[in-house]
Amino acid sequence: MHAIESEQSPFHIPPTPKFVEEIAARKTTEAREGKTVLLFSDINPSELVADDEMMFERVMRGEQLPSDQEFSEYRKRVIESGNKSRKGLCAYLANMLMVQRYRKKEL
Q1: Does the model's pTM come out above 0.90?
Q2: Whole-angstrom Cα distance, residue 81 to residue 100?
Q3: Vertex 10, ends 7 and 12: CA angle to 5°?
Q4: Per-residue pLDDT tens for 6-35?
Q5: Residue ranges covered by each domain of the chain
Q6: How far apart are CA 66 and CA 23, in angstroms?
Q7: DSSP assignment, residue 33?
């Protein structure tokens, strides 16, 4: 285990209950509206970690979008985790990051 991946790192800390509730609500809305293409059907909010929450906040709030390198590093951690829920959220965030960049005219 790398020093950065200690038990105190955001890779092992559970997300806040508010974040879990927000993801669960989005999942329910997407299912009701038939928008399963956005991958929420594969996401179990209780399997996400603080690392996911931090990236979600940066992408969705759009105040300080992650750089390509930052998102690439996040994606690598997600892939290495082998967690299907994290992978689904990562794919969703990649799409939303492009939308946010378009809105900010960064594309």
Answers
A1: no
A2: 26
A3: 45
A4: 445 667 788 999 999 989 888 888 777 776
A5: 10-103
A6: 20
A7: H
